[in-house]
Specification:
Helix content: 40-55%
CATH architecture: 3-Layer(aba) Sandwich
Structural class: alpha/beta
Order of helices and strands: HHEHHEHEHHHHHEHHEEEH
Number of strands: 7
Shape: globular
Strand order of the largest sheet: 2-1-3-4-5
Low-confidence stretches: none
Number of helices: 13
Distance between the termini: 67 Å
CATH topology: Rossmann fold
Radius of gyration: 22 Å
Number of domains: 1
CATH class: Alpha Beta
Strand content: 5-15%
Mean pLDDT: 90
CATH superfamily: SGNH hydrolase
Length: about 325
């Protein structure tokens, strides 16, 4: 029996070593892509390689991603800034990025924590799963953070997670054939969208004749409170920001006041400034949006300038020492 096991191990071992080597090679090439998987790789690379190292970091979903220009913040406040907004994800993924900031990068002095009606919503599926492919092997922290979308074997065994990922293999080939065409999409994590108003709101109005309720996950609310306590203990200043959202889109959420009240309760409890732009004049100007939830490039520039004025008005970010 021992002899059989030994032969089996000796037979399998070369294949495992080869699979690990190929996994390492493919992951390394894929990480270099600037536009595949919604352009998220440069941000993940910067997190894992300790290259964020900014005094001011911006957390949030896609609305943070496209609404707040970190270059304008850097220029105005004479400090370093980086936008860590992650498209299609709720606070659990935002907190995972925060954990990578704390593990591999210098501690930020200020976190601009953007909030959404869906910040605590438990997503039924994993949005844009390909963004995680190059970082997953033996990554227990990511395995715990992403509660759906992949199986344990995807994290534990080399190459398994690449099965059926045709687009990823095409991207790898394109990077090998034409590396010069790999142009960056992000600016310090920020992705401006120079778009005009689309039909998303009209489609939603036709699909939902009545308003709907956003269900917040209690475990995520608890995680959020633990995060606030952690930042308080580490002497990291947090600013809550609810960025503009087109007013007609707000009417679809029946429990909007309940969710907003939760944010205001956290703001009071932990003495966190809350800059709420949900009823700001920008939220009534359709020309600044490309859909009901997202500002276009022009709108994001106007909003970031307004945010900066309010940050300075409340002495937030003026003194970073």
């Amino acid at each position: 029996m021992k002899r059989f096991l030994k032969k089996t191990i000796l037979f399998i071992l070369p294949f495992l070593l080869a699979a690990h080597g190929l996994d390492y090679l493919l992951s390394g090439i894929l990480k270099k892509s600037n536009d595949f998987a919604d352009g998220e790789y440069p941000v993940w690379n910067a997190l894992y390689e300790g290259k964020i190292n900014s005094d001011i970091v911006i957390y949030g979903s896609s609305r943070a991603l496209v609404h707040i220009n970190p270059v304008m913040i850097s220029d105005s406040l004479h400090s370093t800034a980086y936008n860590l907004g992650i498209n299609g994800h709720s606070f659990r993924s935002e907190y995972f990025r925060h954990s990578l900031i704390m593990k591999y990068n210098k501690k930020p002095k200020i976190i601009i924590q953007t909030l959404d009606i869906t910040s605590f919503e438990k997503m039924s599926d994993l949005y844009n799963p390909d963004q995680f492919l190059p970082y997953m092997l033996n990554n227990e922290a990511m395995k715990l953070a992403l509660f759906n979308g992949f199986s344990s074997t995807d994290y534990d065994l080399p190459m398994i997670r690449f099965y059926g990922k045709k687009e990823a293999f095409i991207e790898i080939c394109e990077l090998l054939i034409n590396p010069s065409g790999n142009n960056p999409e992000r600016i310090k994590g920020y992705r401006p969208n120079d778009l005009v108003w689309n039909n998303d709101l009209l489609t939603a109005q036709q699909e939902f004749s009545r308003s709907f309720e956003i269900k917040s996950d209690s475990s995520m609310i608890c995680l959020f409170e633990e995060y606030l306590k952690e930042c308080q203990q580490r002497n990291i200043k947090i600013v809550f920001v609810f960025t503009p959202q087109y007013i007609e889109g707000q009417k679809f959420v029946s429990n909007w006041p309940v969710i907003m009240s939760l944010y205001y309760d956290f703001s009071r409890k932990y003495e966190i400034p809350f800059l709420d732009y949900s009823v700001d004049s920008i939220s009534f100007r359709k020309e600044y949006f490309y859909n009901s939830g997202h500002l276009n490039k022009a709108g994001s520039q106007i909003f970031t300038a307004r945010l900066l004025k309010d940050l300075q008005k409340y002495q937030i970010g003026v003194r970073l020492e």
